[in-house]
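DM from R.C. (forwarded with permission)

"hey, sorry to bug you on a friday — could you get me a structure for this? deadline for the figure draft is monday and I only need the backbone to look sensible"
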Amino acid sequence: MSRTSYGGTCSWAGAAVPLGFVRKDLRVPIGMSRLLPRSAAPPPEEGRRPDKAVARTAVARTPVARTAVARAVTGLAAVLVVGALLLPDRVERLTPGAFTRIPVEAIGGAALLLVLRPGAGRVVAVLAGAGLGVVTLLNLLDMGFRSVLARPFDPVLDWILFDDAQAFLGDSMGRAGAAGVVAGAGALVVVLLASTTLSVVRLSRVVVRHRAVATPAILVSGTVWVVCAALGVQVSGAAVAARGTADVVSGRVQQVRAGVADRKAFAQEAAVDAFRDTPADRLLTGLRGKDVLFVFIESYGRSAIQDPALSSRIGTVLADGSRRLGASGFSSRSAFLASPTTGGGSWLAHSTFASGLWIDNQQRYRDLMSGDRLTLTSAFRRTGAWRTVGIMPGVTRAWPEGRFYGLDDVYDSRNLGYHGPKFSWTPVPDQFSLAAFERLEHGRPGRGPLMAEIILTSSHHPWAPVPTMLPWDGLGDGSVYEAVKKSGKDPEEVWEDPAQVRAEYGRAIEYSLNSLFSYVETYGGDDTVVVFLGDHQPVPTVTRDRLGRDVPVTIVARDPAVMERISGWGWQQDPRPGPGAPVWRMDAFRDRFLTAYGQR
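My reply, with the result:
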């Protein structure tokens, strides 16, 4: 019978038994194994290597390893919490210097934990961690909104936009891709909230456990923060004494209050309508018998004609268009309109222009759509003197807003007759949209006067690939665009370089303008009146946060009487407004237009 060389002794029924004399097959009662010293663990059999998992477990159970792991986890928790407290709300501020500051929230939170009872401290830690996760999420949303819309995220009014964002992803990536992105974003949100909560709870325990060390550290840190705040000490342009999270919370509270108040203010504004009760026979008398086209050019902003990097090429297109239209007997007047949005949210600009109300958030838009406000387009329909239609190539599903705008028919991407490829987000090239309008409505024999709202979308980001002009009689069903798309640029490659983004944006605007000028030159007549304008400035990657939110607006007509009606506006006689051209708020256009062309 073999024996083992266990060291030490164990107590068995009150007697000390030398472990060296315990046989290998001796069974120890349940629970007694815990009485064996660790040094008594049997060595591996001769010639057999220890199991790696057992070895790792043994190491992990040593006090040194446990301490090292605990300190590493605590360190990661501290990095996460401090990083979240110092996280800026703008991408351009995301620099190493932003994280070399002292967050006052950490000092105050640690001090609070030292004076609270243990139970209350745990509750405060959980709430603080969850709150920090929410603030971090809002800062990340701010980064995204500022990068695209040049404004922060509104926690009251902007949640509705995520439906539109998901629809945009579906149009661009397909349903499966969009679902994957949404699922990934949801998982990241859960991980973020859980991580910040667990990290704050862990740090709170460390602070309370090491009260003797934490108390003087808090006093020293607080003193340094106060001194830095008083002296205005900065690192890389950022104040060392940081209180960003406190400011974010305060700002969000004010945003919530403002959002609630805004709805009441909008209801009061919408109740005032100078043209609500105007008789139909007094509306738009100066345009009777004309075909009136309101044409929006996506992302056509002041930057397109005044940014030196873009203005030379686009200015050439506008000058050439002016010459060509002039040769056909057309004249033009132009100015600027201040858009309620920038970088995106085209529908906010469309509704502002048409309704005469300032629609700068989604809640206002929805409230407007649920009312019966007289719009420019519905005014034409009220007269009974025009057929009203919409050419909406960017619409890919049911669009109930058409009823609000008073459109008799809406042609969207599904019924324009286009069977060619999408150009990134853009479902239908601009030239084809205009050709479809000519085929479906404007070119029909025996028709009456038309009012059309036409949206040109080829200048919608990402601006690659960009279509090219083709012969009007060679468009067919759009299949010809397959070769055009293949010869274009890859949007992913373009967006690696901001200079390329600006260049492709300029090419897209050129294409949209050339499509419109060519259409008017080819199909316009004595009774044609065109109002074309941008909806908003492009994203900050193009504008570089310059030149504000203004968009060009131009009226083109062959009949001198049409231009005479607006002679008092002071607009410039050129389709390219100069720096000194008048600037109106976009919501002012409806009333001035209806006044100018109404009964005098």
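R.C.: lifesaver. The chain has 20 helices and 14 strands.
me: no worries. The two ends are 122 Å apart (CA to CA).
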